[in-house]
Amino acid sequence: QVRPVESGGGSVQAGGSLRLSCVASGSGYRPCMGWFRQAPGKEREGVASILIASGRTYYVDSVKGRFVVSQDNANNTLYLQMNSLKPEDTAMYYCAAGSLWTATRGCSGTYSWGQGTQVTVSS
Which residue among 37, 43, 59, 113 is least crowded, i.e. fewest CB within 10 A of its CB? Predict the structure, then answer.
């Protein structure tokens, strides 16, 4: 069972940066890992994900050019570098392991979720 644990959230002003980390301990079939977010009153959305074997990445349109997802396989760690943050990026951010990959959605079939880390961006 993969057990992700996120860290690195916080409060920043618009235009600032944050780096989220996710340490995924345990074992399990996880061809991909992803970052997801959910704002109050909104549905959860996939933000960025990575296909572990190849390093191929996926980004939702709203974060392209601002966020970068990366991995450190030796330490089972997933990162999300978030630059040029906007108030609309405010949400709880979750890390999850997934079993499916598509070019249009990135990592899906998620089955192991972390507890989340809050990101708040003020204008």
Answer: 43
Could you tell me the CA-to-CA distances from 52 to 31, 70, 95 in Å, in that order? Answer: 6, 10, 14
| Cβ(88)–Cβ(63) below 8 Å | no
Residue 28 has pLDDT above 80, yes or no: no
Read off the tokens for 97.
């392991």
Q: What is the DSSP letter of 43?
A: -
CA distance 97 to 83: 24
pLDDT in tens, 77-114: 999 999 999 999 999 999 999 999 999 999 998 888 88
Distance CA 53, CA 118 (A): 29
Mapped onto helix, strand or coil, the DSSP state of residue 76 is coil
Ramachandran sector of residue 88 (left: φ over 0; alpha: ψ -120 to 50; beta: rest) = alpha
